[in-house]
Amino acid sequence: MSAIADRPQESIEPMMLYMGRLAREAAAELSHASTQRKNAALEAMAAKLEANAAKIIEANQHDIEGARKKGRDAAFLDRLALDGKRIAAMAKGLRDIAALPDPVGQVMESWARPNGLEISRVRVPLGVIGMIYESRPNVTADAAGLTLKSGNAVILRSGSESFLTSLVIANILTEALIEHGLPEAAIQLVPTVDRSAVGYMLAGLGGAIDVIVPRGGKSLVARVQEEARVPVFAHLEGVCHVYVQASADLAMARDIVLNAKLRRTGICGAAETLLIDSAAASTHLEPLVGALIEAGCEVRGDPETQRADSRVKPATDEDWPKEYLDAIIAVKVVDGLEDAVAHIARYGSQHTESIVTEDTKAAEEFLARVDSAIVLHNASTQFADGGEFGMGAEIGIATGRFHARGPVGLEQLTTFKYVVRGSGQIRP
Amino acid sequence: MSAIADRPQESIEPMMLYMGRLAREAAAELSHASTQRKNAALEAMAAKLEANAAKIIEANQHDIEGARKKGRDAAFLDRLALDGKRIAAMAKGLRDIAALPDPVGQVMESWARPNGLEISRVRVPLGVIGMIYESRPNVTADAAGLTLKSGNAVILRSGSESFLTSLVIANILTEALIEHGLPEAAIQLVPTVDRSAVGYMLAGLGGAIDVIVPRGGKSLVARVQEEARVPVFAHLEGVCHVYVQASADLAMARDIVLNAKLRRTGICGAAETLLIDSAAASTHLEPLVGALIEAGCEVRGDPETQRADSRVKPATDEDWPKEYLDAIIAVKVVDGLEDAVAHIARYGSQHTESIVTEDTKAAEEFLARVDSAIVLHNASTQFADGGEFGMGAEIGIATGRFHARGPVGLEQLTTFKYVVRGSGQIRP
Question: Which of B250, B248, B242, B212 has the alpha carbon at shortest distance from B230?
């Protein structure tokens, strides 16, 4: 571990507050940096990451060794590991962000008043983003790229196991900022693995942090949501539902259910519960449950589902709110749309839910009444993704109700102000 | 005071949590109530307020008597007092809200993906609003009207001095809800003046409150901003600036400065500081300061301003961040746009600032760089108002960076969800 990371704890609070002040100053400068300059810096970052791949991999080897000594499992070590291909992917990510439109300065709407005032609502950066993440060192580059393009300063807090890799990456990114005349403090990595740093960030660094974005496991997100005194863009979990009605095309329902559950089981948009309408129990229940089981999925069902297929295990009350993130699904027969909506309201996580039906009226009622960030009709829940929405890169998915809801991309990292152009108007 | 308001304190927390649960249930129902039904209820509320004017005024007399006994001053008693005219104004406010477009269900944007998915961003209610206010009982009706129309439930916390008036008004509003088949708990008044109720609301009532809106003096807003664990729509103060450049038309600058400062001195959009560019010191400083003084405004200036007019009092460091809300203005000579922007960043409250200049390039730079909710060119800061922006009624003005910034009207009381319509799409 580097010397700076081992500095005594009593010096952490003033250091963190100082980082916050530097970030605030950088944000003020960055808020009116030109698109061209930001893009040039992003391109330079990409090139520098590739040119310094050996240095990054060397630091990464130290991190991996440390994590292995701590007894971290294979999945953890895989998330942590970087090679040439992964570094190239990071560089590509930065180039992709450079190619996206700059949200800053975009006019969201404008109108004229009878007195001649011209009013516009214009996108401006949020300010300072606090990014708290765990083992994936690529988040350093992804988050820095998105925040830079959207005109925000970022304070990055890397997990301790990926600290050295993140430090090398952050230093490379900072070099590119300086070379392109952008404020060095626009991208700062917390230079210590001391856990108290997270607490200071969650308290907002004396008003310097505008929003916290956690990226990592459920315990990290839960702590951030519990303790943060500033807004948080996050989702704790994605307990996503697919609701199949009797009018659903069976082949379509099968495709959607299998895709929603099994395409990738570890992502937040994966379906965790299948609700079958009682009117569809005799037609859709058995084939859908059979298809899931034959595709290798464990099915935990209510009594009616258990009767439909002897391979179904009994579901308990713990299954309905469960995010398996695995090839397991809970299946329940519900009594009409009202019951489906009530089940989702009670057990869901306001993330993503889909209805499969040929009844357009029922679909529209479901879309209107289910209170989730994303609601779909006749499509897989696995589309819950900024890229699939056409937003380009995303920093995560938010299930809160404020400001950013659903995929958090460049636009969601901005706020707005009202710009009013007059010709001497005074208020009567 | 009524018996319910005097109930022992230990019963307050469960009562508040219960109100929160009722509000959450009401919000779920209200989120898909028809525009027609909401408008009919609003019209009925207006009619009922007028029909029950005598009853409201009787309760108000009790409140006024209590406040007088507590030694409240004339301004306080005036804010508290209702008469037939003020009740008619409340009723008109509700009818105006009924006439505004319903934001719920509005499609903010929509686009198609190459795979045929149709994605829309659709406005939905925020959920449950916690409204904490002081002496003005009309806030009961104004806030209930705006939250109802935007599909939100509201928990109203009236100041103790206006409690009886607010209670009578809230009961009348609830009657109209019931008569129109809307959930009774969509509008709830906290039935106690015990101050601990505010603390429970600021803690969010176990996740039941989505946002707090304070309406009242600076100490109330400061407490809410300090203690709230949920988002807050508010402004603590409006230290608004007018910056005059050398190219400004002198007559226009005089009109704007006088209007911005003196039209109404007690509103948050009133100017508190005048910045004169050093290049304009010989041409604009003396006439503008003279005009202010002759209009009855006290001027506190830096040394250069003091030299320009012997009637100018010396400004101290305490004047620059001061919100006078009175016929007093601080005046400073600044060295160019950079210096003006830096002064505003240091002492301003991110509320509303105006530049007066004929130099369009300088104006655009000011509009881009000043980080306030509202920035104006050649117009009075007193336009900082939802009505003047054409938004219809407003619940307040927010200076935070999140979600609602500037006037908070119906649209700002909504959030959005993504509605995705497919034809069987699965993710590859």
Answer: B212
| Cα Rg of chain B (Å, integer) | 24
- Report the DSSP pairing between strands A211-215 and A298-301: unpaired
d(CA A403, nearest CA chain B) in Å:
4
Amino acid in position B177: L
Residues whose CB falls within 8 Å of the CB of residue B65, separated by 6 or more in sequence, listed in order: none
Confidence of residue B392 (pLDDT cuts 50, 70, 90): confident
A76 touches chain B (CB under 8 A): no
The strands making up A128-133's β-sheet, listed across from edge to edge, are A187-189, A153-157, A128-133, A211-215
Instruction: Kindly report, residue by residue over A360-409, the tens digit of the pLDDT.
Output: 999 999 999 999 999 999 999 999 999 999 988 888 899 998 888 999 99
| End-to-end C-alpha distance for chain B, whole angstroms | 66
pLDDT band at B9 (very low <50, low <70, confident <90, very high): low
Residue in B with minimal Cα distance to A259:
B426
Convert the pLDDT of each residue in A151-202 to its tens digit: 999 999 999 999 999 999 999 999 999 999 999 999 999 999 888 999 999 9
pLDDT of residue B224: 94
Distance CA B144, CA B44 (A): 13
Length of chain B equals: 428
CA neighbor of A195 nearest in space, from A229, A169, A227, A157: A157
Is B371 near chain A, with CB under 8 Å? yes
- Please report the sign of the dihedral spanned by the C-alpha atoms of residue B285, residue B290, residue B293, residue B296: negative
Q: Fill in the amino acid letter for A406.
A: G
Number of A–B residue contacts, CB under 8 Å:
180
**Alpha-carbon distances of B144 from A204, B149, B410, rounded to whole Å:** 33, 9, 12
Hey, how many other C-beta atoms are within 10 angstroms of the C-beta on B34? 11
Phi-psi region of A378 (alpha: psi -120 to 50; beta: other; left: phi over 0): left
- Percent of chain A residues past pLDDT 90, beyond the cut: 91
Test the B interface: residue of A110, A115, A117, A265 with most B CBs within 10 Å? A117
Alpha-carbon distance B196 to B201, whole Å?
9
- Name which of A365, A380, A367, A353 is nearest A252 in CA terms: A380
Which single residue is written with the structure tokens 């709230």? Answer: B228
Complex-level ipTM = 0.93
* Helix residue ranges per DSSP H, B246-403: 250-262, 286-294, 303-308, 336-347, 360-369
Q: Tokens standing for B33?
A: 């109530």
- Report the gap between the CA of B151 and the closest CA in chain A (Å): 12
Which amino acid is present at A289? V
pLDDT recorded at residue B137? 92
Predicted TM-score (pTM) of the model is 0.92
Q: Find tokens 């305490």 and name the residue.
A: B318
Closest approach of A360 to chain B, Cα-based (Å): 10
Chain B residue with CA closest to A399: the answer is B417
C-alpha to C-alpha distance for A5 and A27, rounded to whole angstroms:
25
Q: Which residues contact A361 (CB under 8 A, 6 or more apart)?
A: none
Give contacts of A263 with chain B, Cβ < 8 Å. Answer: 426-427
Q: Which domains does chain B show, CATH number per domain?
A: 4-233+408-419 (3.40.605.10), 240-388 (3.40.309.10)
Residue identified by tokens 């830079």 is A148
Residue A73 has pLDDT above 80, yes or no: yes
Contact in structure between A270 and A238 (CB atoms under 8 Å)? yes
Residue to mutate among B29, B106, B119, with most A CBs inside 10 A, is B119
